[in-house]
């Protein structure tokens, strides 16, 4: 609850202060992009002992980047081949959905798919991955 890992890393991110927005401002000054991990992770899949909220964290970081006008990208952290993980990535990629009359207000500038493996290329895993890729490119 006290954000000890963030404080240890040197930034102040508590309920009354968005530490990621400060980082996004610095990146903007240097004409950099923001890339963040764990786009496929869900709060409900984490141990309660870890007090981890990856969905909240990803949204906070991506939103900070978008508010500062950065190109924002992300990647998956875990090897997952299920529709639930892919759907979580899609929600992060375009949090306001697909805009049929033009580009979405917020979208990822890029996405890095990590953990390409033999398991991904087998049977239903590959079919599910193909569907995910098509959905990532919707309205592009």
Automatic annotation (TrEMBL):
| Listed SUPFAM superfamilies | (Trans)glycosidases
UniProt entry keywords in alphabetical sequence = Carbohydrate metabolism, Glycosidase, Hydrolase, Polysaccharide degradation
Catalytic activity line of the entry: Hydrolysis of (1->4)-alpha-D-glucosidic linkages in polysaccharides so as to remove successive maltose units from the non-reducing ends of the chains
> Per its UniProt entry, what is the enzyme's top EC class, as one word?
hydrolase
Where on the tree of life does the source sit, at the highest rank?
Answer: Eukaryota
EC number(s) given by UniProt:
3.2.1.2
* Biological process annotations from GO: polysaccharide catabolic process
Keyword set includes Hydrolase:
yes
Q: Which GO MF term does the entry hold, naming one?
A: beta-amylase activity
Instruction: Say if the entry is tagged with keyword Hydrolase.
Output: yes
Which InterPro entries does the entry mention?
GH, Glyco_hydro_14, Glyco_hydro_14B_pln
Q: Which PANTHER family did the record assign?
A: BETA-AMYLASE (PTHR31352:SF60), BETA-AMYLASE 1, CHLOROPLASTIC (PTHR31352)
Question: Family per UniProt?
Answer: Belongs to the glycosyl hydrolase 14 family.
Protein name per its UniProtKB record: Beta-amylase
Q: Name the gene for this chain.
A: AMY1
């Amino acid at each position: 609850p006290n954000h000890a890992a963030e404080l240890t890393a040197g930034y102040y991110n508590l309920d009354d202060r968005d530490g990621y927005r400060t980082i996004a401002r610095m990146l903007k000054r240097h004409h950099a992009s923001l890339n963040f991990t764990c786009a496929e992770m869900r709060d409900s899949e984490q141990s309660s002992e870890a007090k981890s909220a990856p969905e909240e964290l990803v949204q906070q970081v991506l939103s900070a980047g978008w508010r500062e006008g950065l190109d924002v990208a992300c990647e998956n952290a875990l090897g997952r081949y299920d529709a639930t993980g892919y759907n979580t990535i899609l929600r992060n990629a375009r949090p306001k959905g697909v805009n049929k009359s033009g580009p979405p207000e917020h979208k990822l500038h890029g996405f890095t798919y990590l953990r390409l493996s033999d398991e991904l290329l087998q049977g239903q895993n590959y079919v599910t991955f193909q569907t995910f890729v098509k959905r990532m490119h919707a309205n592009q």
